[in-house]
Amino acid sequence: MFPVPTQVFLTRGVGVHKQPLTAFEYALRDADIEQQNLVTVSSILPPRCRLIGREEGVPTLAPGEITFCVMARAETNEPGRRIAASIGLARPKDPTVYGYISEHHGYGMTEREAGDYAEDLAATMLASTLGIEFDPNAAWDERRKLYATTDLIVDTLSMTAAATGADSGDWTCAVACAVFRFSPVDAQAGAAQPGGAPA
What we know:
This protein has 5 helices and 9 strands. It is an alpha+beta fold.
């Protein structure tokens, strides 16, 4: 049985190459997680899991380590085609309650549109878990204001990698990840509280 992650950081990257697998590798290099054996997991932010910056999280990684993450990945070899991969995060105010991480990947969206969409997904899942009543047809900006007034959600955010297909027809890959870390010190001291900001 694996321990529960105590920290998470967000990262993103874009890579271009004539081979799709190498474009993916280059995107991981751009995200600074290419030396990891990545295992993708689904979308729960554990209770008391502290958000840290990429600059704090990357140095804790060891080459070849099994590393758990929530990943969004988009790729294309169509010149000029817009792609985006986005991670959304919604954290409850109560640190003993779990939050949500969403992943979104698609075509034709701008970086902001994809980020808002992923953030909306995560916030909506958390709001429904907390019993917050909302209109699912309302615009994201309206629901964001509602969530802020409930005093149940501490914040929502997103990180997005966006790109357009290379003019050469080479593969372009975009990745965004929420990377989990395990810190015995945080776990023992009870210091893993919501806070921090993505790089």
